[in-house]
Amino acid sequence: MLFCGLYQKKHLWEAVFAGWCFGFGLNATSLFWVSEALYIDGDKFLWMIPFAVTGLPAILAIYHAAFSYALFISRISQHGKIGSYAVAFSCLYSIIEILRGHILSGFPWNLVAYIWSECIEISQIASAIGSYGIGAITTAAACLFSYIVLSKRRLLLPALAFIVPISAMYTYGYIRLSGRSIEYHENIVVRIVQPSIIQKNKICPEMAEKNLTELLALSNSYGAEKITHTIWPESSIPWTISDDVMHIVFDKLRMINNNTILIAGSGYIFEQERNLIATNAMVVKNATNINVIYSKSHLLPFGEYVPFRRFIELAVDAKYVQKVTPGAMDFSPGYGVKTVRIDNAPPFSPLICYEAIFPGEVIKNNDRAQWIINITNDGWFGDTSGPYQHFSSVKFRAIEEGVPIARAANTGISAMIDPYGIEINKLPIFSCGIIDCKLPKPIPSTIYGMYGKTIDLALALLLIAVFAFVSAILPTHTNKISSKSCA
After folding, report:
1. pLDDT in tens, 462-487
2. Domain membership of residue 350 as a residue range
3. What family is this protein classified in (predicted)?
4. Which of 81, 353, 361, 426 is catalytic?
5. pTM of this prediction?
6. Confidence of residue 167 (pLDDT cuts 50, 70, 90)
7. 423 in catalytic set
């Protein structure tokens, strides 16, 4: 639709507006679930729903408006051949997607590559070219398909250009999976706990003890004596911990099986240079103490902190300027990706919530983790498409890096995912239960795992070069698509 619509625009403002409208509609329909979080504490945040439903899509639509602007001023869409327009369109669209994943804090959500999340064979090529690479090939193939359909001619070469890359990706994945062999750590058994606590109850202080009791019951249920490591979801410890009260929290967790090491999520407050700092943290409890091992670095705007708070408070009463998650203090970011070492386990990379959506930013380059622990709480978003979109992106990180992922979610979807992105076991959304599984071993480092950011940069530069070539070098004989073809 966008491919055909922009080709016919004769004025810059028409093209930009059409691109923005397309982007707004795309993001409004795919991100509507964001507003679900505002119903949880409706007395405070219900007024924000219209802004969430329209504001976020409107802002993200700027990327599509910028795409349309650049495509229009290249003049290909007015004077170029349909073929050169298809190439330029696909290159520029992929460039914009890469930029969306990196500008400001980045938001690489619902990447084009994820349309293949249920086709595990095609998804495998993420191990070599990453999600942005799959997206670029898919976009190019889709544009060439549109070219074939709209040109109304028998075009063998463009048809092959569409079929060959898709077939090549599938073949690559088929061959890769035919040699799939997963080895396990025989002496490491992980228990992933999904308590499925209703979000309103989860944030209610009066329910804290009951919520903890449910987590402990699941953790100590049948077979607990065999478990070496237990993983709880994000913010599963129902109190914000600090160095002063660490021993109190430790005492409350004593009921968990002492043979297991607990990895869990919690808020954490500490003092730094006479200032109180709050973080969304991951902690580890063993038989003797609790340690904070990681603080989330990719924070969710308005969910975990209010961006531009000082400026907003100049126009709005401070009591209305609050983050959606509980607590008066904004969270502060941690120091980025790290590799953590704990007792009786291979080194792992801790990721909290949507940190797992960032390609090439989930494992430390010079200290490769052997697995990823991703804790999250998608209970904020109810039974919408949001948790499913989130889970799809996590599977791509396993493929890209070649390491297993243990994912614990409060209300789902929890899973143990192997290094090929295949679910060994999972718990569906809103089910209460546990997953007991031996820890899979990683496979040798993938190409993308070794050179991820370099590959993304090289792809971006290649796309820019091809777009520039098509814009400036190729002849511009008119070969228009008729309006009737686009109807």
Report:
1. 999 999 888 776 544 444 444 444 54
2. 184-298+333-440
3. Belongs to the CN hydrolase family. Apolipoprotein N-acyltransferase subfamily.
4. 353
5. 0.92
6. very high
7. no
